[in-house]
Design goal:
Blueprint: E1 7-10, H1 12-16, H2 26-37, E2 43-48, H3 61-67, E3 75-79, H4 83-91, E4 96-102, H5 105-112, H6 116-132, E5 136-142, H7 155-168, E6 172-177, H8 184-197, E7 203-207, H9 214-223, E8 228-231, H10 251-260, H11 269-283, H12 290-297
Parallel strand pairs: 1-2, 1-8, 2-3, 3-4, 4-5, 5-6, 6-7, 7-8
Helix pairs in contact: 2-3, 2-11, 6-7, 8-9, 10-11
Bound molecules: 3-hydroxy-3-methylglutaryl-coenzyme A (HMG) and magnesium ion.
Length: 298
């Protein structure tokens, strides 16, 4: 049964921009986030406090947080891989943080330079400190449908890693299909397994569209009762440590589908298209949303 109200986590300013090689001026990032704040979105991942040596594009996240105009109805979130990142996030006044690990050992090592178990140990003091500051923590599990280095990933690995993050105090697990290899049956079987232990409101889905399966996979997730979906405006993005990972599913296309299904999102599609056009123009790249392309031609 589909839930009537769907929450969109807009990850464009983080997952979308982190893969851009040339450094984007802070002013463009701020303008993108300000425009997104006017669309009715309730959650925007605005940056990440990671090592600038690993992801140079995100090094300006503190400036971005300083300069954005915050809408009271929007949660502005950021990724924090360690205590150092959390300290910076607190100084920048983030509303919420996300920790991130993986269901694949090799991906975890390549992305955050530690094993899955070490990542969990690293998150313990981090999450405790976030709680002391009344900052909610979201947890990401990458490679839930497959890994660029290990290939197939057993679903029990996803279950175990998700359980550990929830036990540490994450309020929700975002299931990342980092390289977009999942198909609908796999989504259904993974969610069926996870729903035996967790409720649907503890689960979110995060599909990259590398193999063109993301929209179908989102539909399959809705069918399983999932009501939180991560998407990226204009389909921007990819993970710098997952070669070939293209953008997340475009927010515009997901909103179009959800509204067509009669589900509520609170998001104004036209304003969203304007925000996507703005950033594509600045990046000098083709808009990755089909809905935006069709609407721009009218
Ligand atoms: P490390 O090299 O093992 O860390 O990296 P370290 O503790 O040895 O520190 C090395 C240097 O980095 C030191 O500087 C630290 O100060 C600095 P130095 O002394 O050499 O000058 N440093 C930091 N600087 C600023 N902020 C920090 C920070 N931490 C250390 N927070 C580390 C370990 C985790 C730091 C590194 O691997 C890292 O930053 N990784 C992040 C990679 C990343 O951001 N990937 C993309 C996001 S995940 C993703 O996209 C997937 C997702 O979308 C879901 C999906 O699609 O599946 C979420
Ligand atoms: Mg991602």
């Amino acid at each position: 049964m589909m839930q009537p109200n769907i929450k969109i986590i807009e990850v464009g300013p983080r997952d979308g921009l982190q893969n851009e090689i040339s450094l984007l001026p802070v002013e463009y990032k701020v303008e993108l986030i300000n425009q997104l704040s006017e669309t009715g979105l309730s959650h925007i991942e605005a940056g990440s406090f990671v090592s600038p040596k690993w992801v140079p594009q995100m090094a300006s996240s503190d400036e971005v947080f300083k300069q954005i105009e915050r809408a009271p109805s929007v949660t502005y979130a950021a990724l924090t891989p360690n205590l150092q990142g959390l300290q910076s996030a607190i100084e920048s006044g983030v509303d919420e943080i996300a920790v991130f690990t993986a269901a694949s050992e090799l991906f975890c090592k390549t992305n955050i330079n530690c094993s899955i178990e070490e990542s969990i140990d690293r998150f313990k003091p981090l999450i405790n400190l976030a709680k002391q500051h009344h900052i909610k923590v979201r947890g990401y599990v990458s490679c839930t449908m497959g890994c660029p280095y290990e290939g197939d990933i057993p679903q029990k690995n996803v279950l175990e890693t998700s359980r550990k993050l929830l036990e540490l105090g994450c309020y929700e697990i975002s299931l990342g299909d980092t390289i977009g290899v999942g198909t609908a049956n796999r989504v259904k079987s993974l969610l069926t397994l996870l729903k035996k232990d967790f409720s649907t409101d503890q689960l979110a889905v995060h599909f990259h569209d590398t193999y063109g399966q993301a929209l179908t996979n989102i539909y399959a997730s809705l069918d399983q009762g999932i009501s939180t979906i991560d998407t990226s405006v204009a389909g921007l993005g990819g993970c710098p440590y997952a070669k070939g990972a293209s953008g997340n599913m475009a927010t515009e296309d997901v909103i179009y589908m959800l509204h067509g299904l009669g589900l509520s999102t609170g998001v104004d599609l036209e304003k969203l298209i304007t925000a996507g056009n703005y950033i594509c123009n600045k990046l000098n790249r083709q808009n990755g949303s089909k809905v935006a392309l069709a609407s721009n031609e009218q």
